[in-house]
C-alpha cells in the first residue's frame, strides 16, 4: 500500500487541514503517517486514519526519515514554515537529505503537494 507522511509546521497546519480535506478520497486509499501534532489534528478534523509519530521537535521528522531510509515511504507532504526558525532544524534538513538520497518525492508547498498527490492517485489507477 502506498505510504505517505503528512507533516506541517504550526503556521502551515490550517493549510494542511484544507489540503487533506480536499484530497480526503485520495488519501483514504493510502497508509498515512504524520508527526504528532499534525497527525492529531488530521485525525480529529477529518475521517482519515493516520499513524502518529512523535511531535517534530521531539523526533518525529527523524522517525519518518528512518522509514525513508528503510524504503518504506512513497512520498512526503511537508508544509514547512519558511519564515520561522525551528529548534529541530537539523532534523528537518536530515529528512530532506534522506528523501533526496532515496528519491522519495517530498512536496513542501500546497501546489507541489497537489501535484504529488495527483501523481500518486494516477499511479494507483493504472
Ligand atoms: O515540527 C514539525 C515538523 O518539523 C511538525 O511537528 P508536529 O506535527 O508535531 O507539530
From TrEMBL:
<dbReference type="InterPro" id="IPR036914">
    <property type="entry name" value="MGS-like_dom_sf"/>
</dbReference>
<feature type="active site" description="Proton donor/acceptor">
    <location>
        <position position="61"/>
    </location>
</feature>
<dbReference type="GO" id="GO:0019242">
    <property type="term" value="P:methylglyoxal biosynthetic process"/>
</dbReference>
<comment type="similarity">
    <text>Belongs to the methylglyoxal synthase family.</text>
</comment>
<dbReference type="InterPro" id="IPR018148">
    <property type="entry name" value="Methylglyoxal_synth_AS"/>
</dbReference>
<keyword id="KW-0456">Lyase</keyword>
<dbReference type="Pfam" id="PF02142">
    <property type="entry name" value="MGS"/>
</dbReference>
<dbReference type="InterPro" id="IPR004363">
    <property type="entry name" value="Methylgl_synth"/>
</dbReference>
<feature type="domain" description="MGS-like">
    <location>
        <begin position="1"/>
        <end position="126"/>
    </location>
</feature>
<feature type="binding site">
    <location>
        <position position="88"/>
    </location>
    <ligand>
        <name>substrate</name>
    </ligand>
</feature>
<dbReference type="GO" id="GO:0005829">
    <property type="term" value="C:cytosol"/>
</dbReference>
<dbReference type="GO" id="GO:0008929">
    <property type="term" value="F:methylglyoxal synthase activity"/>
</dbReference>
<keyword id="KW-0665">Pyrimidine biosynthesis</keyword>
<feature type="binding site">
    <location>
        <position position="13"/>
    </location>
    <ligand>
        <name>substrate</name>
    </ligand>
</feature>
<feature type="binding site">
    <location>
        <begin position="35"/>
        <end position="38"/>
    </location>
    <ligand>
        <name>substrate</name>
    </ligand>
</feature>
<dbReference type="InterPro" id="IPR011607">
    <property type="entry name" value="MGS-like_dom"/>
</dbReference>
<comment type="function">
    <text>Catalyzes the formation of methylglyoxal from dihydroxyacetone phosphate.</text>
</comment>
<feature type="binding site">
    <location>
        <begin position="55"/>
        <end position="56"/>
    </location>
    <ligand>
        <name>substrate</name>
    </ligand>
</feature>
<feature type="binding site">
    <location>
        <position position="9"/>
    </location>
    <ligand>
        <name>substrate</name>
    </ligand>
</feature>
<protein>
    <recommendedName>
        <fullName>Methylglyoxal synthase</fullName>
        <ecNumber>4.2.3.3</ecNumber>
    </recommendedName>
</protein>
<dbReference type="GO" id="GO:0006221">
    <property type="term" value="P:pyrimidine nucleotide biosynthetic process"/>
</dbReference>
Amino acid at each position: 500500500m502506498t505510504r505517505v507522511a503528512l507533516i506541517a509546521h504550526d503556521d502551515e497546519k490550517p493549510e494542511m487541514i484544507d489540503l487533506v480535506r480536499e484530497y480526503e478520497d485520495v488519501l483514504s486509499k493510502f497508509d498515512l503517517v504524520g508527526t504528532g501534532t499534525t497527525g492529531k489534528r488530521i485525525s480529529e478534523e477529518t475521517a482519515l486514519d493516520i499513524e502518529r509519530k512523535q511531535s517534530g521537535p521531539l523526533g518525529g521528522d527523524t522517525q519518518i526519515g528512518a522509514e525513508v531510509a528503510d524504503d518504506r515511504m512513497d512520498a512526503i507532504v511537508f508544509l514547512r514554515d519558511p519564515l520561522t526558525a525551528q529548534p529541530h532544524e537539523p532534523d528537518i534538513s536530515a529528512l530532506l537529505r534522506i528523501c533526496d538520497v532515496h528519491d522519495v518525492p517530498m512536496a513542501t508547498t500546497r501546489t507541489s503537494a497537489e501535484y504529488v498527490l495527483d501523481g500518486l492517485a494516477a499511479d494507483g489507477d493504472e
